Amino acid sequence: MQNTLSNKGFDPVFASSVSKKIMENVSKIIVGKKDVIQYILISIYAGGHILLEGVPGVAKTLIAKTIARSLSLSYSRIQATPDLLPSDIIGTLVFDPRINDFKPRKGPIFANIVLFDEINRASPRTQSALLEAMQEKQVTIEGITFKLPEPFIVIATMNPIEMEGTFPLPEAQLDRFLLKIIVSYPDTDEEKEVLRRIHYIEKFEISPVTSAEEILAIKAMLPKVRVSEELIDYIVRIVKKTREHPHVRLGGSPRASISLLLTSKANALIDGRSYVIPDDIKFVAKPVLRHRIILKPEAEFEAITTDQIIEDVLNEIPVPTPGVPS
Fold first, then answer.
1. What number of other Cβ atoms are within 10 A of residue 273's Cβ?
2. What predicted TM-score, i.e. pTM, was given to this entire model?
3. Final residue before a domain boundary, out of 191, 217, 243
């Protein structure tokens, strides 16, 4: 299969077909949350990590596990606690008397999709170890470097309400998350459907509908998605405007601009297009920017949110109407 896929070349229709199969498969278990599922796929194709924020019980863990199974990827879950050590995540060297030497005992970070539950409960030291894995896609155990599997994505969860016994995530680590996705309560019809499925279905099972090779083939298409100069300028103006907003203390960095570009290209592939349109950029703007904007104290006092700031920015900047880029 790998040789066939490597010869496939640039095929947005194939990317869209695979993406639809994944989303339909995940929807057999997950009720609603279509945007959340699509955002996670965008992040996987763009090679980034995700921060899921939501109260307990809104299926954050189930979403991550179901997507991993649909993609036929290895999956592990790490529960963050204040006493969690870096070695609990990355592993350690253990002595093997059979070879009279030390050998690595790899930790749960060695998986394609790693769910890091309640990341803000981990100590700064442990968060630092996770940061190396997220940034470099490798870990160091007793001075020896080990590459992580491809694809590799961290899906970290955070409870926005409970703050006791937590550690704030430094801006440097927040910036390493490609997207911050808000997982909200289901609406009335969705919650009824959840209850129906729990009542009538004895066992939830899901089978893979794609493979790691297909995911890597789609990732390889990303550089070939075309973006016009007008849309590059549009991205830069959006990020620059976040820095100039009167309620913002710190706006998006150049990494935010890069993230907007990559995620909008990934969304174009999911839609089966070889080029980006303004709607791609607007669709990913909030999850890309909301965790990269720091508000002034007076804005927080007035209960102004970063999502409102992003809405203001998108409404103020004229949307370009470019043709299909050559």
1. 19
2. 0.88
3. 217
